[in-house]
Amino acid sequence: MTVQTGWTAPARLEVIVGSVREGRFGPVVADWFVRQASGRADLDVGMLDLAEDPPGFAGRIDAADAVVVVTPEYNHSYPGPLKHAIDEVGKEWRAKAVGFVSYGGLAGGLRAVEPLRVVFAELHAVTVRETVSFYMAHQSFDADGEPVDTHGPAAAATALLDQLVWWARALRSARAHQPYGT
Ligand SMILES: Cc1cc2nc3c(=O)[nH]c(=O)nc-3n(C[C@H](O)[C@H](O)[C@H](O)COP(=O)(O)O)c2cc1C
Description:
The chain has helices at residues 26-38, 57-63, 80-88, 110-122, 152-177, and strands spanning 11-17, 43-49, 66-72, 97-103, 126-134. The chain has a five-stranded parallel β-sheet with strand order 2-1-3-4-5, sandwiched between helices. The chain has one domain (12-176): Flavodoxin domain (Rossmann fold, 3-Layer(aba) Sandwich), CATH 3.40.50.360. Strand 3, helix 3 (80-88) and strand 4 (97-103) form a beta-alpha-beta unit. It is built from five helices and five strands, in the order E-H-E-H-E-H-E-H-E-H. Flavin mononucleotide binds at residues 19, 21, 24-26, 72-76, 103-107, 137.
């Protein structure tokens, strides 16, 4: 067995399901994204569903190299329970790579993503530029939970994950070399 160390070791990714309301669409989007990420050898993937009040949330963030937040857009921002969960965790966010998968109406949830970038900057996390965004989300998936567009979302997920893995590895190396400061 080859033990992978250093740069090439799979990065630990936690995917956060950011909507908790009854009848939510979030798990359709999150499950699809986890399937995309789980197919990669450079990632070890877990899911944190905020509706289940996941035990050990802070510890899981601490052990992660990267986090992807799957968020809907509510009134031009992101859900309140997601902010609560983010705020429950402190230094565990520092020097971690964070990406976003958003969904909503015509704006594809992007008005939820931009304010989240400001929050994560305050937490010393590094957000990656590429996003996956579903506009008119309910119509964008078929009954099996697969995107109706069989190319665009998968390509966007690959672009996001490629960038996220680079940052996750870079930050993991840096943290190992020198614990993140103040
Ligand atoms: C309280 C509420 C506010 C919403 N506000 C917006 C909005 O400002 N812009 C938008 O594009 N969609 C908005 N939507 C539509 C949601 O983004 C869409 O229904 C999405 O599927 C909600 O995610 P969820 O089902 O996982 O909770 C809103 C939905 C809810 C429930």
